[in-house]
Design a protein that fits this description.
Keywords: Mitochondrion. The protein has a domain of 29 residues. 89% of the residues lie in helices and 0% in strands. The protein is rod-shaped and about 95 Å long.
Length: 71
């Protein structure tokens, strides 16, 4: 009975160690967010905002053309 308890405790400890090891490996493999990557993200967001603004401006211009056509 005592041997069973010892083996169960050993198994639990080994499982926890395996999870910790996997967590450490995952933390090492994921790229760290550097300032260069943050700048690229902000640039892509800015370009997306500008392109959506240009599309919205085209829509407004087309609406103005239509309203002037009916005047």
């Amino acid at each position: 009975m005592i041997e069973l308890m010892i083996s169960l405790i050993y198994w639990k400890i080994m499982k926890i160690m395996k999870l910790i090891t996997l967590l450490i490996i995952r933390m090492i493999r994921t790229p760290k967010s550097s300032s260069h990557q943050k700048e690229e993200r902000s640039r892509t967001q800015d370009s997306e905002i500008l392109s959506s603004h240009k599309e919205g401006r085209k829509d407004i211009d087309s609406l103005l053309n239509v309203t002037e056509y009916f005047k």
